[in-house]
Design a protein that fits this description.
By secondary structure, the chain is an alpha/beta fold. It has a single domain, classed as 3-Layer(aba) Sandwich (Rossmann fold). Helices cover 37% and strands 12% of the residues. It has ten helices and eight strands. The chain has a six-stranded parallel sheet, with helices on both faces. The protein has a two-stranded antiparallel sheet with strand order 5-6. Helix 1 crosses helix 10, helix 3 crosses helix 4 and helix 5 packs antiparallel against helix 6. It is globular and about 45 Å long. The chain starts with 6 loop residues before the first strand and ends with a helix.
Length: 265
């Protein structure tokens, strides 16, 4: 029997939307109408994204939220959202605005109110922050930078292969916006965490993640303490930021499917 809600996968910085291909196929086999539309300005292929970074540049959090809200508006029912990294933040914003039936935020970028900023997270994002002009540019990682930010819990050879297959330039603007969130009362990183009428939320964290360390996800969970809606957390101790695309992706995906089943979705 087909699932009642479509599933939208939302990628984060430095990964192309096609990096969700295996997930889309798995969820489709489970009966969901699954798709992974890219961010605004994202070309269709990794190669095009690398050759035309100017199309990706200067898109901020509000732009991305509005882009997915428009996609959702064309759907017959509210979708289930599965987001990774900044995609996890976008999913939380859309869920808080009652535009989704449920959301799974995997190693989600910090939302407004989250205070911990571990050194590893600063190092992972240094390629963007080292130049203020990068706010309006698209920034690429080197293979070595990708290994630190994504592939630190997998063999170097696998990390390099994933970099070659999926890595694309990323807009710097969302990172600058998130970094200033706690100083801006109207920050685009602000999520309606007090909404008790929203659908269920699962926060997934990798215990070895350099880019979004455990402290960030645990602090994110605390932001929801005034909501009566379902807010669960799942820790995968030995996983890092590559957990949606590396050799262990299926374990993460199966855990997400299991959680959705427990929510009656």
């Amino acid at each position: 029997m087909a699932a009642d809600h479509p599933v939208l996968f939302i990628h984060g910085l430095w990964l192309h939307a096609r990096s969700w291909d295996d997930w889309v196929e798995l969820f489709a086999k489970a009966g969901y109408d699954a798709s992974a539309p890219g961010w605004p300005g994202d070309p269709e292929t990794v190669e095009e994204a690398r050759s035309r970074p100017e199309e990706i540049a200067d898109h901020g959090i509000d732009d991305v939220v509005a882009h997915y809200a428009d996609i959702i508006a064309g759907m017959p029912v509210k979708p289930i959202l599965v987001g990774h990294s900044f995609g996890g933040m976008i999913a939380q914003r859309l869920l808080g605005e009652d535009l989704a039936a449920a959301a799974i935020a995997i190693d989600a970028a910090q939302i407004k109110g989250v205070l911990p900023l571990p050194l590893s997270a600063l190092k992972a994002t240094l390629p963007v922050f080292k130049n203020p002009a990068n706010r309006h540019r698209a920034v690429s990682l080197t293979a070595e930078q990708f290994r630190f930010a994504f592939g630190n819990a997998i063999p170097e050879e696998e990390s390099d292969a994933l970099f070659e297959r999926w890595a694309i330039p990323a807009p710097g603007k969302p990172l600058f916006e998130a970094a200033a969130a706690n100083f801006n009362p109207h920050s685009p990183a602000k999520v309606n965490t007090e909404n008790s009428g929203r659908g269920p939320l699962l926060l997934v964290m990798g215990g070895k993640d350099h880019t979004v360390p455990e402290a960030v996800t645990r602090s994110t969970l605390k932001q929801y303490r005034h909501s009566e809606a379902v807010t669960d957390i799942l820790e995968l101790e030995d996983r890092a930021h590559s957990l949606t695309i590396d050799h262990g992706w299926r374990d993460v995906a199966d855990a997400c499917l299991s959680w959705l089943g427990k929510q009656g979705l």
